[in-house]
Amino acid sequence: MFNLPKYGTGGIGLARLALLLDALCIDRTRLQQHSLVITGSNGKGSTAAFCASIGRAFGLRTGLFTSPHLYRFNERFQIDGEPVDDELLEALVLRVATAITDLDHHGVTETFGAFEAQFALACLYFQEMGCDLAVFEAGIGGRYDPVRLIGATLTCVTSVDLEHTALLGNSLALIASDKSDACASHGTVIYGENCLPLRAHLAEYNRNRHVAGLHVGDGIAISSVVTSRKAQNFNCRVGETKLRGLEITLHGEFQLNNAAIAAALFLLWMRRMHPDADATRIDHAIRAGLRETRWAGRLEVIQRDPLTVIDVGHTPDGVMQALRGLHAVHGKDDWLLVLGVSADKNIDEIAQHLAPHFGVIVCTRAYHKGADARLVGGGARKAHATARIHVANAMEDAVKLSQQLARTVPRKVYVAGGLFVAIEYATVLRGGKAEDLQFF
């Protein structure tokens, strides 16, 4: 959408991006006051979607910036649940691209990255549309991510996993620290449950900036969980505020963590921005917003016969959590796995978390960034030596083969290992062409 490289050149991009925001006349003070920032290794998109849905349920005009998109670029920029339309998006892209060109003419010699331009576009879009609340999902990390320029005093770290270690550090403590830096001084970071072992480290890391930490599992409690195929019901306590009988339709135990974070973020934001708001109305908005949240690609049922479920998780912890959710909702037996892993991921590690749970595995390659299916097959074989492993290097062949195998036995189909394989599989199954998808 922007004729720019994925990452900018000339060093860390915060300074050049600040110039771009100024050139677009972004009111940074208002941006800070009206924004929530979502960081983390897994669960960012779902948590952001929960937050935006709660804001809409309260009656706030709510913007949502997420990445990557799954099917269309427009998905990254939403207001009140609707992606930006093509005509307006084209106009916004032109304005941002023109501002970048003007900066180049005025001595800014560094090259902007595409994500930086997209972030600026989201800021411009939400400002001009008068959003009362804007929810921003970070790209990578937090210390040098564009979202740091928001200066948000309410952020979260949904979870931590070993990802982008060359950029973020080679330990969970370093990665959690980097993501915490999206929060401005005197702010609050809400941490997901798997950050709890890092609580002491994070408290000291944040101390000098007077940033407070609030953890799921300590300060935020989840209880009375009941899971069915239709929904998950639970109680949540945020400090002294009790939210009973909440419901979400996104599956997986990890989604309870994400929903609790979103509820807490909204409660704290309302206390700062609207301290006189009616507590009953806030409670109703949280309930309705969580219940009405839909987010594609997360343990999503894309076909009923045979039952076919996709998940876009792409880190070891992400695929492991999703698999647990799959089993909790749909049972452990009679599954066939379609496995694909991106070439820049650790195939053996992803395969170790998935392959041992499936007797039949179809290994394939996504058109976008996919590792060779034979390499994926090798990883699956090492992880589960007795499984029946099929190799289908073309996505179309993987869809056809897996559906045939599922109908013959019969079996259920689970597509996992990475975002691209899940979305391409769904596209082909619905009659589309995987190679026509355009990812960032």
TrEMBL record:
Spell out the Gene3D superfamilies in the cross-references. Answer: Mur ligase, C-terminal domain, Mur-like, catalytic domain
Reaction(s) catalysed (UniProt annotation): (6R)-5,10-methylenetetrahydrofolyl-(gamma-L-Glu)(n) + L-glutamate + ATP = (6R)-5,10-methylenetetrahydrofolyl-(gamma-L-Glu)(n+1) + ADP + phosphate + H(+); 7,8-dihydropteroate + L-glutamate + ATP = 7,8-dihydrofolate + ADP + phosphate + H(+); 10-formyltetrahydrofolyl-(gamma-L-Glu)(n) + L-glutamate + ATP = 10-formyltetrahydrofolyl-(gamma-L-Glu)(n+1) + ADP + phosphate + H(+); (6S)-5,6,7,8-tetrahydrofolyl-(gamma-L-Glu)(n) + L-glutamate + ATP = (6S)-5,6,7,8-tetrahydrofolyl-(gamma-L-Glu)(n+1) + ADP + phosphate + H(+)
Entry keyword set? ATP-binding, Folate biosynthesis, Ligase, Magnesium, Metal-binding, Nucleotide-binding
Judging by the UniProt lineage, the source's domain of life is Bacteria
EC number(s) per entry = 6.3.2.12, 6.3.2.17
Which family, according to UniProt?
Answer: Belongs to the folylpolyglutamate synthase family.
Q: Kindly provide the name given to this protein in its UniProt entry.
A: Dihydrofolate synthase/folylpolyglutamate synthase
Which species does the entry assign this protein to?
A: Tardiphaga alba
What phylogenetic lineage does the species belong to?
Bacteria, Pseudomonadati, Pseudomonadota, Alphaproteobacteria, Hyphomicrobiales
